[in-house]
Amino acid sequence: MDTALDRAVRVFSERGYHATSIGDLTAAMRLATGSVYKAFRDKHAVFLAAFERYVALRQEETRSAAAQGANGRERLRNLLLSYVEHSQGSEGRRGCLVVGSAVELSAVDPVVAALVSARLETNEGFIAGLIREGQADGSIPRHVAADDTARLMICITQGLRVVGKARLSLDGKRLVAVAMKLLA
Amino acid sequence: MDTALDRAVRVFSERGYHATSIGDLTAAMRLATGSVYKAFRDKHAVFLAAFERYVALRQEETRSAAAQGANGRERLRNLLLSYVEHSQGSEGRRGCLVVGSAVELSAVDPVVAALVSARLETNEGFIAGLIREGQADGSIPRHVAADDTARLMICITQGLRVVGKARLSLDGKRLVAVAMKLLA
DNA sequence: TTTATTCGGAAACAATCATTCCCTATTATC
DNA sequence: GATAATAGGGAATGATTGTTTCCGAATAAA
To answer: Which nucleotide's C1' sits nearest to the alpha carbon of A33?
Structure first.
């Protein structure tokens, strides 16, 4: 079932909610229509399950990318680098389900809107925490405003996914080098 | 007709392409179905016209916001401030049609994908130009990498629209103050 | 072996969608 | 002033959508 959900994540990420018919869904999940409706109440429930699975997987990836780093500054750099990589290539073209949901559904679906906001705030809190870690270990200056910088970095990460979907090339090393000036 | 297109822009921006039925469209444009199909070939053509109108209006707003500034650095600050303002409140909740198109249609609609890429590259070029102006007038250091910084700033502007749609509050002054560190 | 139950698959359902057709009203032309 | 031509409005149409239901196969229990 989890492997079927993974395939649902791919379809929803690439086409969005409304453009994905349950025909697309069953083809991708290798399940018949009846099976899908036996496992989920309706299309919306499939989407919610796919969304939560996507969030769980991405969170795991992000945390482990940040874990590799001697101090707060290095962990933050690795997090940003990871975001750039995920925004590129085939995964970049597929798109981020959080960004897609924010843009396509936040205005019309309060349930999804709440999930998206919660996810962004969690990420922002994680980044702010890394900044404070860096300030504690001396790798980031004290005068850096942790919360404001974290919110701007969230904008950068979400913007990366938008730009990546538009097929603009992204040079991770150079882009991150510029972004790290925010920690000066 | 332009006023009808403006209303189409609002609907498409808020709900996206697929979630906007031509019933929604006719209601918003105050036109009957037949009239819409007399003025445009199909729904896709309405969207393309709305997209181009949106781009033209926003470009005008952005350029005039940037025009108010004594030097390159100030013009860039005003541009960023303008983006934050447009990403907030009712307009922020409505969303940006370029971001929406990039996320919802870039993967499946080559025509829209090309328009989106062109728009992003135009914006990026404009920002890079402002940076170079600042370097010429002495308000921005020479060692700033104009192209890389411009691409990152595009990510910021697009990310602002995503975050604004998710209803997270944005403090223009503080956010832009942090972002201006990219020009140090 | 037989019965019961769960699971997957395909056809059928109602609703909604984009699109077309036709009618009316208004303008312009002779 | 009569007529042609055009623009706008709304009902009909065919395709597609999400959803449900029914049926067969496979597995487990007796």
So the answer is: C9
